[in-house]
């Protein structure tokens, strides 16, 4: 009986996986078709040898750039929250991020600095980077991205405070528009003690600004 139930469960999971694969392939093909139209609108020939596989390559690349939509916060932190009797500042600096500006669909790239003060629970350090990746691999604006990362850490840990700083370069400023290279945009989000206590906030920023 148990073996029969296990087989039914396995068959059901296999069907679900098959449905997801079919849906994913269908979505990729629709994106590839859109890229083909875009190439034609630019005056190029999508059947030219160098462009023949560009639509599907670009579709796969875009799917990767926006893969954060397929991940949930629960998927990331599951099993990685640990009870620890600590209440001192934890800082992880220089987490590399790559995102797409939702206004022009061009990249912005930079680094995230995260700090939090535990309230008896800590999160596996790599999970902080994964949270940053999850939100950055979506269509974004930097201001919202900063707030989302801070809010997610607050949600899963309920720490005494969270602080997030992002420093990024936006290609929509360097490749178009004002075309100013070397510009960096800095945004921050501070919650809990980092907002209410200037000394705690200053301690975090001293770590961020330290070379």
UniProtKB/TrEMBL annotation:
Ranges for domain GTP cyclohydrolase I: 32-208
Gene Ontology CC annotations of this record: cytoplasm
SUPFAM superfamilies given in the database record: Tetrahydrobiopterin biosynthesis enzymes-like
Organism superkingdom: Eukaryota
Keywords carried by this UniProt record: GTP-binding, Hydrolase, Nucleotide-binding
Protein EC: 3.5.4.16
Alphabetized InterPro entries for the sequence: GTP-CH-I_C/QueF, GTP-CH-I_N, GTP_CycHdrlase_I, GTP_CycHdrlase_I_CS, GTP_CycHdrlase_I_dom
Top EC category: hydrolase
GO MF term list: GTP binding; GTP cyclohydrolase I activity; zinc ion binding
Pathway: Cofactor biosynthesis; 7,8-dihydroneopterin triphosphate biosynthesis; 7,8-dihydroneopterin triphosphate from GTP: step 1/1
Pfam hit, one: GTP_cyclohydroI
GO biological process: tetrahydrobiopterin biosynthetic process; tetrahydrofolate biosynthetic process
Family named by the database record: Belongs to the GTP cyclohydrolase I family.
Name assigned to this protein: GTP cyclohydrolase 1
Organism of origin: Spongospora subterranea
